[in-house]
Design goal:
It is built from ten helices and nine strands. With about 350 residues, it is an alpha+beta fold. The model is unreliable at about 1-10 (pLDDT under 50).
Length: about 350
Amino acid sequence: MADQANSNPTSIQGVDVDKVSAWLVANISDARAPFSFSLIAGGRSNLTYKVTDANNVGYVLRRPPLGHVLATAHDMAREHRIIAAVGKTGVPVPKTLGVCTDESVNGAPFYVMAFVEGEVLDSAEKAVKLDPSLRIEASMNLIDVLAELHAVDVDAVGLGDLAKREGYIERQIKRWSTQWENSKTRELPEIDEVVRLLSSKVPQQQGVVIAHGDFRFGNVLTNVQTGRIAAVLDWELCTLGDPLADLGYIGVYWSDGPSSALRANDPTPAGGFAKYQDLVDRYAKTTGRDVSGVDYYVAFSCWRLAVISEGVYARYLHGAMGKQEGIDMNAMRAGVDGLTTRALESIRRLL
């Protein structure tokens, strides 16, 4: 996992170095001071830092964004609980090492997990790190990991009470409509039209699974030597719900070639990866689920991502994400508009 240039170990935005260092020594087995901290590049929601101790052992620390955030949107203890539970299964996740809910330590809760080697393939440029001969393997392993996650018995791993089990889409429409009202920076009538159309075509939910909520190449670590997924990251949107939501979400990002690229932060526009339909077919064969309505979930995921992106845009606009260079605010705003348009186009195809 790549990180930004080494930060001054005595001063880094979002980390009280002295207090956090003392907590690490007291709570993480074998952790040795002094520690160095660096902000891992690419985070636009929760802030993620690489921590290196005196023995050159690497850890990862996650905390909420700086400043005001929406209530319950960045629950560190919940995220830690999910990763720890999934870690009991065959789904690859980093090992959780500790969680701190005492805000006097760092001004906000945080948790710590083991550092996992691998590449976050979150752009076409990053695809060069993965040999073309391994891109099909990586594509299929990504969808196999998703199928494995959706096969987990939620009660057996202690997540049966994580959320309501039924009515996932209805709950999500309500949640993200409220989120839009709380974080929007302008009026966008097309959002209201998407909500109306999505609400009128809600499909029947196929079972109850651990729904990651943000599953894609950009949120996993890929072993570029083998083409296999080393760890699934970024569980802040995870809940119990409809498995096809995760499958449709991949379709928002996935490209079957440069001409069909939908999002810049995905490696698939570089070419050489499996076709999206191949992923859908693989998932159907592995899980036995009916995937004929996956287009609805692509539309739903475009809309939900538009709402999330508006919230991120708003936090950057108000300085809650700290001083991060190279952020194109106009492109971020335009991305919300583009996703909304794509959601409308996708849902209208089902009418």
